[in-house]
Automatic annotation (TrEMBL):
Upper lineage: Bacteria, Bacillati, Cyanobacteriota, Cyanophyceae, Oscillatoriophycideae
Cited Pfam families: FAD_binding_4
Family matches, as PROSITE patterns: FAD_PCMH
This protein's name: FAD-binding oxidoreductase
Biological processes per GO annotation: lactate catabolic process
Every FAD-binding PCMH-type domain range: 61-234
Region (Disordered): 463-491
Top-rank taxon, per record: Bacteria
GO molecular function (one): D-lactate dehydrogenase (NAD+) activity
Coiled coil feature spans: none
Amino acid sequence: MALLSFPELGPRRHHSGAIDALVRQLEPLEKAGLVLRRSQQDLKRYGRDAFDYSPVLQEHLRGAAAELAVRPADSGQVEAIAAACACHGVPLTLRGAGTGNYGQAVPLLGGVVLETTGLDRIRSIGQASFTAEPGCRLQAIDRVLEPHGLALRLAPSTYRTATLAGFVAGGSGGIGSVRWGFLRDPGNLLGVEIVTLEPSPRRLQLDGAAAQPICHAYGTNGIITALTLPVAPLRRWHELLIGVADLDQALALGDTIRQGEIEIRQLALLDRPVAALMPWPEPQGQACRPAAARASCWLVALVSEPHLARMRELVEAAHADLLLQRPERQGGGLPLGEICWNHTTLHARAVDPGWTYLQLLLPQPEMTAIRQLSMHWGTQLSWHLEAVCSEGTPRWAAMPLVRWRGTEALERLMRQTVDLGCVLFNPHVITVEDGGLGGVDAHQVAAKLRHDPAGLMNPGKLRGWPDAAGHRQGSAAPSGIGLTDGEAAPG
């Protein structure tokens, strides 16, 4: 199977008057706060996300568009929208803030885009968890948790704009994954409330294992109206930028930091070509830039305040340079967390749109695959690594920048990464399985059958869903992790 293959979609099943009929059914709810949008400008805005990271997706999703955008004000209105879509046979695609990178929120067969940002209440806060509605911004959640001495465990680099359900439905991890792993790891999603897509929608409370099929499913098997997530103790984090002589030493120092009982929330590695494209903070920025630094690799870290002294000792022992230390999100320029994860690619493409990227979990020892790929691809490949915890084991994920040379070259590169033992989380495809799970998750498909029996939710994004002939597009396989910190339903 080609790594850049896409499912074949049939024609739109809803008739031309279905959208008009659906609008007439929903218009009475406008007095209660429901927003209906049909202008071409709005449809273009709410039918897109940040899939332009991928030249492949740019081409493949060029003609995809919404026919109606709706923003409910409460979960009761979500049920009304679900009922209307089911009665008229109209596809429904979920969207938060639209910061996803893989087309998760792009409607492949038209229909309705449901924007969740109107559902933004935090319902409850406990000692170990909180429950909030899908459109809550992550930064806003942290602000409410802070007086309780609590904080989010995980957050994408789009933390300031991303929504909670967008992160859970389409993201995988991000800042915090070095400690807490990925969203699909046990204990990181405690429960969801969903609305089914049926003529008479049901509101279901799914706890523990029952909630897992909704995680990282691109909004294909349930309309999320609330989520319960665990919290971490509030910490005072400091941003550190460390210059290291070469990639080998940077990896070694990163491993030493993780083994040294230092509490960290983020640890990323950028090589010189990647670092040269980053908007380093001022006034320290000049010292951080590659032209002014003797380092060839940069480590970006978030370290808890009590462990700063030990961190400085490790940096000095490794003969590395501490280029910047400051309290998190204080001082000029971007927070360093926004120079990590998918923001790294964002900043690189802002300078040179000829870059795209891959997402990999590197085999151990990591330098074996890195050397082989670097030797073969030279300057067409530049390294960006993220320290993660995968199923309880410390690992390095790679999100390298790749010079765009067409689909054939990209396919060859991806094949080589797999041959070298890397786990590929393909950011140039549109289905849940091909983008990260590695195979059809039977639990996700079963959840879709229960919650969306007509297959109207985000059609084309779940390869395991039966096609028109009743055959499944793939074979069942255990679910896995993905590396994106972006959102689906994306928010």
